[in-house]
Amino acid sequence: MGGRFVRIENITIENFKNVKYGTLDLTNRKKNYRASIVGVYGQNGSGKTALVDALQVLKFALCGKAIPEKYADYVHVDEDHATLKFQFKMQRDEVSYDIWYQFSLKKMIDDTHSNEEGVNADLEYKTQIYDEVLSFAYTSKDEKVRKGPLVDTRTSGVFVPKSKFNELLGEVTNDITELLVTKRLVQTQGRTFVFSREMINAFRKNCKNEKYMALIEGLYTFGNRELFVIDTENSGLISMNALPLAFKYKEKNSETVGNLMLPLNVAAPIPEDAMELVKKIISNMNIVLEEIIPGLTIDIVDLGPMVSKDGKIGRLIQLMSLKNNKAIPFQYESEGIKKIVSILQLLIVVYNNPSITVAIDEMDAGIFEYLLGELLNIISERGKGQLIFTSHNLRPLETIDKGFIAFTTTNPDNRYIRMTNVKGNNNLRDFYYRDIVLGEQNEPVYNPTNNYEIALAFREAGEVFGS
């Protein structure tokens, strides 16, 4: 694969949510596909969502943004910290990089909150990210460099190794005190040090090694413009009559990346300069939408100008559904159609762009199983980007290559596996069901239930109501 692209090849999770340890290879080793698709299946509470949450934390980290407080509670209850490790493949011009990035996070008391008397109020917490290690290896037509650390913050100083420190920061190396202050500051704010705004600017200003800078810029761009994570909060917003719309739209000389939140039960205000962009995104989606749901397109109705509280001019719009040229408010469509529309623009980009990674939790929620299988089959066979999804619907197990499927286990110390001994003519759905019953894999994939005990529990619970 030529050109410039970044792709995640492996994720390792330690002590995060209900995953004591789990590692998942995201590459299909059996066949040479351009697209990288990984569907993760498993019992409720077995680590599927933890994988998507880990990717969400990665996005915050690579963007240099503060890790939200809720992720501090995701550290395993028996441990004081969690560790997330990611391996990337990056192609830039004629240089091929293998990159490893890892960090730990823990829950810390946020002592910046106090009342007027200076006495601590009810305790508030924050997420601290620390012990970052960025390692690399690369191959070009002129040289080959083996794996080694580029930035290792596991030191009382700024970072090691010293040789890389000097190459990355050059003239700044004389001002160690300021760098140490920056390191401590970003940690107290729940941000990463390596990809903080302060350090990115310092690297850009002082680094003379083009390969090192290309590596850092590549990951920074990937986090900000090429990695999209759609978690279950999106489904919750759809249920509350709002449409979260993530997008990446490229024209000849410009590219726009962002998120829109459109309330569906009332007219939605948007900035006036965003109006044309929204129209273009919707027009782009309609090309695919009317093919996967025949007769359906969407449009916006411009209800006129409005002035926001800060005095800025905007437009009021209403999202409409057009079925066979008859317009109805989009809020009356099914949640499945709303879900498809909310992720469709990202699926278009995944199909066409090799340097895009989209992770979607519970991708099957509300979507007709046959359509889901067809969409995944098309993207896996002909797409270019990377799609990571979790699902409860087993239909895709029959439509996409077996190398694209992974499963969770009931073992918290080994959460993710690929099925072994699957023959080419095996139906993976039937194979999975058989393993639930017979337990033929090295790790159990399902905690068995007892129908009689379940029925008895229903009966006992019903006795409370005197039935």
From TrEMBL:
It comes from Anaerostipes hominis (ex Liu et al. 2021). Keywords: ATP-binding, Nucleotide-binding. InterPro entries: P-loop_NTPase, RecF/RecN/SMC_N. Residues 8-404 form the RecF/RecN/SMC N-terminal domain. GO terms for molecular function: ATP binding. This is ATP-binding protein. Transmembrane segments: none annotated. PANTHER family: ATPASE AAA-TYPE CORE DOMAIN-CONTAINING PROTEIN, ATPASE-LIKE PROTEIN. It comes from the Bacteria. Signal peptide: none annotated.
